[in-house]
Amino acid sequence: MYIIIYDFGTSSLKTCLLSVDNGGIAVEASSNASYGLYVLENGGAEQNPGEWWQAICKTTKELFDKTEVKPEEISGIAFCAQMQGVVLVDENGRALRPAMSYMDCRGAKEFNDCMGKGIVKVSGCSLYKLLRNLRVNYAGSTSVKDPVWKYKWVENNEPELFEKVDKWLDVSDYLVSRCTGKIVRTADSAFATFLYDTRKGREGWNKGLLKMYKVKPEHLPPIINSTDLAGALTEGAAKDLGLKPGTPVFGGGGDTTFVNIGAGCTTPGDTHIYVGTSGWVSTFLNRQAVDINAMITGVLSAIPGYFNYYAELETAGKCYEWVKNHLALDEINVYLEKTEVSDDFESKFTSLYDYMSAEAGKVPPGANGVIFTPWLHGNRCPFEDANAAGMFFNIRIDTGKRDMIRAVLEGICYHLRWLLECEAKKVKTSDTVRFVGGGSLSPVICQMLADITGRTVETVDNAQQVGAVGAAIVVAAGLTGESAAELSRRIVKANRTYLPDQENKAVYERNYKVFKNLYKSNVSNFRQLNA
Questions:
Q1: Which range among 18-27, 142-151, 442-451 shows the weakest confidence by mean pLDDT?
Q2: Is 309 helix (H, G, I), strand (E, B) or coil?
Q3: Which of 303, 224, 247 is nearest to 477 (CA)?
Q4: What is the pLDDT of residues 459-487, one digit of tens each?
Q5: Segments forming the whole domain that contains residue 246
Q6: Chain mean pLDDT for the chain
Q7: Which of 273, 186, 271 is CA-nearest to residue 221?
Q8: Which of 264, 428, 440, 504 would give a disulfide with 451, using CB separation of 3.0 to 4.6 Å?
Q9: Are residues 137 and 212 in the same domain?
């Protein structure tokens, strides 16, 4: 069967045409498009839903220019999208304002007005309200970036627009609505609001939490599962996309929901690490767990009855993009030394990132003492601080660009190790970790991650499309009735293994200790500069 998955990242879409059968899963064709992420001075981070749709239309039509597959052969489509966004729509499903990204942190006042009051507090939150949330779903809206504070910000700051709101959706839910005309939320998307009750037999919107946070129940749509058929492609949407009207559209859901499935991590205790624009560590569980102090919770899985214990780094690959644009490339056109790139560059390297990784590999482990903190848009886990920022620490007169590039990669890995260690305090993480996302394409980064974490690291095929692969497996399960977990384990296999190099342990242990101290030593400095 052929399935189309739309994998929506922070600033780009990858549309994949996949074939799924008993022998495995393959990406037959893919197409990319980008869209804006508009970061505002007041902490806002917005996107234009119209740009999302333009990207969908463009990439879908390009798929059929790259393959012999016909539109009528498509068995189903689904979305795998960034999570914890806020898309407010009218009764016809039209977006009333720009979508608010998961990175949006304008809701600080709303958070403090609600959670900052009370005699007894935990992690800056009212203990009473936190306990009510934890009892319902082992989670809580403890970050200013959580969706409910975005929703409340619009209510407080754009009251006339708020009066027109019919439903509150996340990114994937909005796109399903645009395709089918049906306004629903998937369970994983509903859980990400922390207003969803996960207790067995009580699954759904929790009336007590809605009342506590003063969320209008009528703004919350019916809930379906990721494997459910959400509806059929409408005539208008089919014309825009170049697909057949009536094509099944499945619930789909969020990227964190599908990546573990696409990584083949569907046995309780399986741990994977993802590095794309953002990064995370996630362990698949058959129960819920939470660590309020470290801002980690068990996110609802696309597979009913399971959870992903999930710890996030908001800017991982984004740091690598930053260093490419502002350090590797000379943006003011001043070159003190020009290095000729060999004629066989294109045969050796698939991208500039690949070349940069190879150059960073020439620098010894520890980056000659340079340490980078990857907090370019604040940080959420294991500490919540919108004021935290990136820094290069311990630059000396002989420090070069290669040292700094390697320091960025090591800084990302140091933070991922920190997240992994925080997870291990509450749950059993796997000794062998699956590494997926664009970062896993670099052997230099893979070995660096193994050395820094001390874990065996495995990679898989289709590493950049791993969310799409997971979503396709879920759609296939919905079409066939087979278990998504069993299907994932059967067809997703490791393609390469990296073992920790003990010779590098001492320098990484030293630098990691300093890395963790840098936040503690600079928290007041960050506040003075960025509050």
A1: 18-27
A2: strand
A3: 303
A4: 999 898 899 999 999 999 888 888 899 99
A5: 2-251
A6: 92
A7: 186
A8: 504
A9: yes
CATH, residue 391: 3.30.420.40
Query: H or E element: which one contains 100?
Result: strand 99-100
**Tally of structural domains, the chain:** 2
pLDDT > 90: percent of the chain: 74
Q: Kindly state whether residues 321 and 410 are assigned to the same domain.
A: yes
Closest to 498 in 3D by CA, of 438, 452, 429, 437: 452
Select from 158, 135, 180, 7 the least CA-distant residue to 86: 158
Query: Between the CA of residue 305 and those of 47, 285, 301, what are the distances in Å?
Result: 33, 9, 8
What's the farthest any 2 CA atoms get from each other in the chain?
68
Distance (Å, whole) CA 372 – CA 461: 30
For the sheet containing 296-300, what is the strand order? Answer: 290-291, 296-300, 307-313, 279-285, 271-275, 432-436, 456-460, 494-498
CA-based R_g, the chain, Å: 23
Tokens 């700051």 belong to: 157
Angle between helical axes of 443-453 and 352-360 (0-180°, round to 10): 50
Token look-up 């959706």 returns 169
Tell whether the model's pLDDT for residue 13 goes beyond 70.
yes
Average pLDDT over residues 113-122: 75
Burial of 337 (C-beta count, 10 Å sphere; 0-12/13-18/19+): exposed
- pLDDT for 347 beyond 70: no
Query: For residue 427, what are the CA distances in angstroms to 92, 284, 287?
Result: 44, 10, 10
Q: What is the pTM of this model?
A: 0.84
Q: Are 90 and 164 in contact (CB under 8 A)?
A: yes
DSSP 357-392: HHHHTTSPTTGGG-EEE--BTBB-SSS-BTT---EE
Q: Of 210, 227, 251, which one is at a domain's C-terminal end?
A: 251
| Nearest-angstrom CA–CA distance, 77 and 175 | 11
For the segment 155-199, what is each residue's pLDDT rounded down to a tens digit?
999 999 999 999 999 999 999 999 999 999 999 999 999 999 999
Q: Which of 360, 363, 392, 365 is nearest to 376 (CA)?
A: 392
Burial 482-497 (b: 16+ CB within 10 A, else e): eebbebbbbbbebeee
pLDDT surpassing 70 at residue 99:
yes
Does any domain span residue 401? yes
202 with 337, same domain?
no
Residues 6+ apart with CB under 8 A from 273: 279, 280, 281, 282, 416, 420, 433, 434, 435, 436, 449, 457
Helix H or strand E segment including 514: helix 505-530
Tokens of 228: 């459910």
Is 337 within the bounds of a domain?
yes
User: Which among 277, 519, 514 is positioned nearest to 387, based on CA atoms?
Assistant: 519
